[in-house]
Amino acid sequence: MEWLLVAGVAMVVVCVLVGKRRHRRFLARAHSAVAKVVHSWSEEYTTDSRTFGDQTRTSYHVSVEYPTEDGRLFSANLLVGELMEPGTEIPVIYDPDDPNDVRAVRPRLTDLI
C-alpha cells in the first residue's frame, strides 16, 4: 500500500513540473496584445471541502477580442478576477504559432507594491 502512495505523490510532482515547463515555454514565445472586453459574466459554484465545508464561490469570465501582430482579430473566453464592463481593455499574451492559445495577464503582488 505504501508504494501506491509514493507512486501517487510522484505522479503529482511530475505533473506540476511538466505544467511549469510548458508555462515557461509559453511565456518565452508569447506576444502581447490589448484585448477589448465584449461581454462578461459570473458563475457561482459550490466547493465540497471536508475541511471547511461547502462554500459558494464566484468565478468571473470575459469574452474578448484581440489583434495579433499581423492584424488578424481573434476572440476568446477568459477567466478573470473581477466583472468587467464591455469596452474595458485588458492585457493578454498569446502564442504566435497558435493565437487561440491566449491568457489574461494578471499583475503579480510585487507589481502592486
Explain this structure to me?
The chain is of the alpha+beta class. The chain contains 2 helices and 5 strands. It has a 5-stranded antiparallel β-sheet, covered by helices on one side.
Topology:
Blueprint: H1 2-29, E1 31-47, E2 55-67, E3 73-80, E4 89-95, E5 98-104, H2 109-112
Antiparallel strand pairs: 1-2, 1-4, 2-3, 4-5
Give unreliable regions as ranges: 12-18, 109-113
User: Count of helices?
Assistant: 2
Task: Kindly estimate the percentage of residues that lie in beta strands according to DSSP.
Answer: over 45%
Number of strands: 5
Structural class: alpha+beta
Radius of gyration: 18 Å
Write the H/E string, N to C.
HEEEEEH
Helix content: 25-40%
Oligomer: single chain
Calculate the mean pLDDT score and round it.
Answer: 80
The end-to-end distance, rounded to whole angstroms, is 48 Å
Shape: flat
**Main β-sheet, in a few words?**
5 strands, antiparallel
Largest beta sheet: what is the strand line-up?
3-2-1-4-5
What keyword list fits this structure?
alpha+beta, 5 strands, 2 helices, 5-stranded antiparallel beta sheet, 113 residues, disordered C terminus
